[in-house]
Amino acid sequence: MTIPKTWRGLTLCLCVAWGLGGMQTARAQQGAVAGRVTDAAGEPLPGVNVALLETTYGAASAADGTWRIGAVPAGSYRIQASIVGFATEVRPVAVAAGETAQIDFVLESIAVEAREIVVTTTRRTEVANEIAASVSVLTAEDLVTRNALALDDALQYVPGVQLTGNEVNVRGSSGFSYNTGSRVLLLVDGMPMLSPDAERIPFDLIPVHQIERIEVLKGPGSALYGGGALGGIIHVVTKTYPDAPETYLEAYGGAYQPARRDVWRREWKASTDPRPLGGVALNHARPLGANTGLWTNVTYRYDAGYLNMDNARSFQGFSKFTWRTSPDSHINILAGASRETSDTFIYWNGARDALNPGSIEIGSAASSSGATDNRTQHFSLMPAYANALSARTLFQAKTRLLGVLIQPLDSEKKPKPVSSGTVGFRYGGEAQIDYEPAPGRYLIAGVSGDANVTNSSFTGDDAPSGQPEIAAFAQWEEAIGRVRLTGGLRFDSYRIHEGDALRKLSPRASAAIGFAEAWTLRLAYGEGFRAPSVLERFVESSDYLPVVSNPDLKPETSRSYELGVRGQPTLGGVPFLTLDAALFLSHYRELIEPTFAPERRSFRFVNFTKARIRGGELALRAYLRPLRAALYAGYTWLDAEDLETSEPLAFRSTHLLKAGGDFRIGPIECGADFRWASAPERVDSDFALFVPDAELSTPLQVLDARVGSSWRGVSATLHIRNALNYHYLSRPALLGAPRHAFLQISTRF
Q: Nearest-CA neighbor of 321 among 295, 353, 341?
């Protein structure tokens, strides 16, 4: 099946289903659910999230604790009320046509912060404590508190997640691949989002201020979302529009501290001056009518960088439009565009000249530079449609179009012709049916198709323009008493050469067993795979490093097992923290890593035959209401081994610790986050054949601190990143950011 035919088929499926859904809606009989939320003393609780689980219906309680969900199809549901600092309550409710069901909630105050409530990474809305998978969640409050400037900035605080440069490593699944592919899949509102040119994660495309939450699924997710999810999934859930117009304005500004090493300052005189950074973001959200609304974001950022020839200036716009076409259906359209002009520092000139980019002499050819100037433009368009065909059936259809244009800049900072850079498009779509034949039993099935068209100066003439894919998936879930069983299977077919296809079945099975009170034991098994990107197979370049193609690369595969427990220990009968612990074991075959080929005097991407990663993870979170303090800690231990050489896998830290908290003293809010990672046991020494001291590695010891307050609707926070001014390597031949501080001022009106 060709991709155009697949695209036309998915489009036809969407149109037919939309029409059928509309006829079904016209016949639907509707009711409503309403009530009031109070605490144990009878005081109203505003801002409580009230949601009908497994549907798109929900509301928030008003100042007097009242709430109402209207236009609900008649049927039986589970309704949930949740808010930070109170125990979540889930109750059954029956909605009758033409009537309003009354449900009042009385929530009990608890000592822990109950905010990891609902996740959707598993293709279905579920309570986090009930799923058989390791999932960490960052909420909108987390992002605002830490003033995360981009998605990768936020991910640094997730247990088990490590960033090597700008590549995401979840529980050791990734090393460092020179940004040519990702083993972790990014989803935005359930839609895959990898760049067309190299299948990287485009961190800067999503405005942080409009993120409702970030869910990180640790472990293979190929049975759910296909090849990009070999090591895990990052799911970004965006906000919806509010009931009343709302505008949020934020500005920040600060500087990097000058280099403290005399040997570095002598080689780059500008390092003795503070290097500025700053930005401004404007967000506006409003209803446009009874059934429509939108939010829109505009962001400008400038970063002078702390290294020579490493600065960036970016402008970004992003919007989400929602149209409730009927009480049972809605359309969401996400659209965005960005432009960044940057000098990018790639590798240093040695440890004694760490602030200047290096260069490589390759025979008689011109030298390769350790820095590059580019203008990068992205755009995205992602429409999605959902229709509750009945109280037990939900239909969803999603399409996506991503584009990238990368143009090198000349000595006058003018863009070179497109033929000197990269232009690419990725497009696709999927259709999914969620069906609940009986209470506690769920069936999910669907089809998807993706393709890309890319033309890059970094690939040879024989490189294909893309790797089209079609897939079919199914998932079954059954609740038997306190046991919840899940099974899933996905079939993917990639066309990697003309007439040559790669096919893969990815199974998944898990069980969640409830025991005691608020405790869940989980067992999970899953397989994953990733087809090598076009850039990995066909790269031919000497601009930054000498790299040659390897069209015979095989797909990476993984097999993973996990045993975990999640719950809330009690002290005197009162919960005092949440706990999540897991043991995991993953076997990998044909991992793709860059390696030096002596006969070619160049790097090339090759397959390793076998690798094993095993380890354990412990995450704790507590909310101490009397002290108005929230604390968290996460520790991950890894044993990552190349089974062919009996050596550790490169770029993996054995120990990873993250801890921090927030507390309030009167009107002052304070917080700190600490990240520690042991130095990798092995670093790819082949890099050092070209770049001086590239074999060096360091542990990571970074403390971020903040203090702020609010007055008359205006918030001001001072952030100090790397407060101890610890010098470390964020990846080979690249220093991490030194101490830098910035003042953040925001207001909402």
A: 295
Alpha-carbon distances of 504 from 169, 222, 495, 531, rounded to whole Å: 23, 10, 12, 10
Q: What is the pLDDT of residues 455-487, one digit of tens each?
A: 887 777 777 777 788 999 999 999 898 899 999
pLDDT confidence bin for 5, thresholds 50/70/90: very low
From residue 690, how far is each of 71, 302, 310, 591, 734 by CA, in Å? 66, 32, 21, 23, 14
**Lookup: tokens for 318:** 């992003």
Say which CATH topology domain 3-107 has.
Immunoglobulin-like (2.60.40)
Domains 3-107 and 118-748 share a fold: no
Query: Which residues, listed in sequence order, are joined to residue 235 by a DSSP beta bridge?
Result: 187, 215
Spatial separation of the C-alpha atoms in residues 634 and 629, rounded to whole Å: 17
Task: Note the pLDDT tens digit of each residue in 168-210.
Answer: 889 988 877 666 667 888 889 988 888 777 667 888 788 888 8
Within 10 A of 408 (CB to CB), how many other CB atoms are there? Answer: 16
Dihedral sign for Cα 584, 590, 594, 597, please. Answer: positive
Domain ranges of the chain: 3-107, 118-748
Which segments within 391-518 are labelled E, that is strand? 393-408, 422-438, 441-456, 469-480, 483-497, 500-515
DSSP state of 417: P
Return d(Cα 519, Cα 526) in angstroms, integer: 23
Rg (CA), the chain: 26
Domain 118-748 sits in CATH at 2.40.170.20
Is-contact 650 176, C-beta < 8 A? yes
Digit-coded pLDDT (tens) for 345-356? 989 999 999 999
Three-state helix/strand/coil letters over 84-95: CCECCEEEEEEE
Label residue 666 exposed, middle or buried (CB < 10 Å: 0-12, 13-18, 19+): exposed
| Residues 293-302 as b or e (16 or more Cβ within 10 Å = b) | bbbbbebebe
153 alpha carbon, distance to own chain's centre: 11
User: Is the per-residue pLDDT at 364 higher than 70?
Assistant: no
Residue with more model confidence, 625 or 411: 411
